């Protein structure tokens, strides 16, 4: 599929904002939605709009159930799960990791969790909350500075008391990939389970949870082109059976019997136990359509194009003395470029306002702040940063527009604000 056809698949790219053309460089936050996803969601809302499956016995319910079953199977195949029933639909990555943290069967002898300083808050805070409740102890790798986090900085924290190692597949700040496979080997040797946060990985990279040794994997649909409010948690089947209940209610029970005059619930042993209540059927169907779109476009093409754009952007920014690129010097495959201003009197928020309001013909959407990774920023002495993130529809001309805008802004402020 050529670039022109790809861009035509995303109607948001054709719109104007205040009469100006849109340049969208915030894909790590959320990818724009392609027409097939919009069509699939619209079909559900306009033609179906009903509960799925066994909740109702009518034709609309059966049609929704079939579409949701197909989406679960596509999601399982997308990460090479052994079975569709190993996919738990969630609202997003955050809910998936909260589910893992609250449901994991910690014991007194095995109650430590290893996380990293590069984690999104969603992969850090759920375990810190469980630590407050006295259920586990958190150990954090990589807080001592430096932008490179290899297995030799994570594995020494894994010991006989480690129950779970939770780490990102890729950083949402720097875009760097982490050595999940190597960490998984050491974790399994110690009898620990591996949870991967793949929110910033799957839009450009193919995952194989079985080959990588990943026991649980969480991700969000909106970063793949699906609607917001849908995500998934892959969980190996034998581990899923050991998890404690997270949310219970309609759809989670196989039967409720009366024992001594009181109701006693008997829960399903598979993904249904964790999908209480009416589900986001539009989102589930949209996720299936988004995975189809990624597959048709080709993740190999997407990764090649986004990595090339990010590398080109880094080369251009490396020549701007006023900014400091964040992350290791070598970031192969990464679709993210983040930087901070060396002069602390220049604020990313001010530059972001400039990008949205002051350019004559364009509105450039980027991301400024701490990107839900405050510990990483503070431990590296960075108050705030600006992040550019690329997807398959972005272009070299958009990089030039951004870099020209940056240099013009710095020239206009004299490097000060």
Would you kindly provide a written description of the structure presented here, covering whatever features stand out?
- By secondary structure, the protein is an alpha/beta fold.
- It has two domains: 3-30 and 298-413, Aspartate Aminotransferase, domain 1, CATH 3.90.1150.10; 37-295, 3-Layer(aba) Sandwich (Aspartate Aminotransferase, domain 2), CATH 3.40.640.10.
- 37% of the residues lie in helices and 18% in strands.
- The chain has helices at 3-8, 35-48, 59-79, 93-103, 121-132, 180-189, 209-212, 237-240, 281-297, 299-318, 348-357, 374-379, 396-413, and strands spanning 16-17, 20-24, 87-90, 112-116, 137-141, 162-168, 193-197, 216-220, 231-235, 253-259, 262-267, 323-325, 336-341, 362-365, 367-369, 385-389.
- The strands form four sheets. The protein has a seven-stranded mixed beta sheet with strand order 3-9-8-7-6-4-5, sandwiched between helices. The chain has a four-stranded antiparallel beta sheet with strand order 12-13-16-15.
- Helix 2 runs antiparallel to helix 9.
- The relative contact order is 0.16.
Keywords summarizing the entry:
417 residues, alpha/beta, Aspartate Aminotransferase, domain 1, Aspartate Aminotransferase, domain 2, 2 domains, globular
Draw up the topology in text.
Layout: H1 3-8, E1 16-17, E2 20-24, H2 35-48, H3 59-79, E3 87-90, H4 93-103, E4 112-116, H5 121-132, E5 137-141, E6 162-168, H6 180-189, E7 193-197, H7 209-212, E8 216-220, E9 231-235, H8 237-240, E10 253-259, E11 262-267, H9 281-297, H10 299-318, E12 323-325, E13 336-341, H11 348-357, E14 362-365, E15 367-369, H12 374-379, E16 385-389, H13 396-413
Parallel strand pairs: 2-14, 4-5, 4-6, 6-7, 7-8
Antiparallel strand pairs: 1-2, 3-9, 8-9, 10-11, 12-13, 13-16, 15-16
């Amino acid at each position: 599929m050529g670039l022109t056809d790809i861009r035509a698949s995303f109607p948001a790219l054709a719109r104007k904002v205040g009469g100006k053309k849109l340049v969208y460089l915030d894909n790590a936050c959320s990818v724009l939605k392609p027409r097939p996803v919009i069509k699939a969601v619209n079909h559900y809302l306009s033609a179906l709009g009903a509960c799925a499956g066994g909740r109702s016995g009518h034709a609309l319910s059966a049609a929704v159930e079939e579409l949701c079953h197909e989406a679960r199977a596509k999601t399982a195949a997308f990460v090479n799960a052994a079975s569709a029933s190993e996919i738990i639909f969630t609202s997003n990555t955050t809910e998936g990791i909260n589910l893992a943290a609250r449901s994991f069967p910690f014991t007194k002898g095995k109650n430590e969790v290893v996380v990293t300083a590069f984690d999104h808050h969603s992969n850090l805070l759920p375990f810190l909350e469980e630590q407050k409740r006295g259920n586990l102890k958190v150990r954090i790798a990589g807080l001592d500075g430096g932008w490179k986090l290899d297995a030799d900085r994570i594995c020494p924290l894994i010991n006989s008391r480690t129950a779970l190692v939770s780490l990102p597949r890729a950083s949402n700040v720097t875009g760097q990939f982490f050595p999940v496979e190597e960490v998984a080997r050491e974790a399994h040797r110690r009898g620990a389970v591996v949870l991967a946060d793949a929110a910033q990985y799957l839009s450009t990279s193919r995952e194989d949870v079985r080959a990588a040794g990943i026991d649980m994997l969480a991700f969000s649909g909106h970063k793949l082109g699906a609607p917001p409010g849908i995500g998934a948690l892959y969980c190996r089947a034998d581990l899923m059976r050991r998890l404690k209940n997270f949310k219970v209610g309609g759809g989670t029970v196989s039967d409720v019997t009366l024992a001594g005059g009181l109701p006693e619930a008997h829960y399903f042993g598979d993904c249904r136990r964790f999908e209480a209540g009416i589900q986001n059927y539009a989102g589930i169907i949209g996720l299936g359509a988004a995975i189809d779109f990624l597959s048709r476009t080709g993740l190999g093409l997407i990764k090649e194009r986004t990595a090339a754009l990010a590398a080109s952007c880094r080369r251009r920014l490396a020549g701007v003395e006023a900014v400091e690129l964040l992350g290791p010097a070598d970031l192969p495959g990464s679709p993210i470029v983040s930087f901070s201003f060396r002069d602390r009197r220049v604020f990313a928020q001010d530059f972001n306002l400039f990008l949205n309001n002051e350019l004559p013909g364009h509105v450039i959407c980027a991301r400024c702040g701490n990107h839900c990774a405050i510990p990483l920023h503070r431990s590296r002495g960075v108050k705030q940063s600006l992040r550019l993130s690329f997807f398959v529809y972005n272009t070299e001309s958009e990089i030039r527009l951004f870099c020209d805008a940056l240099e013009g802004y710095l020239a206009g402020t004299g490097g000060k604000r």
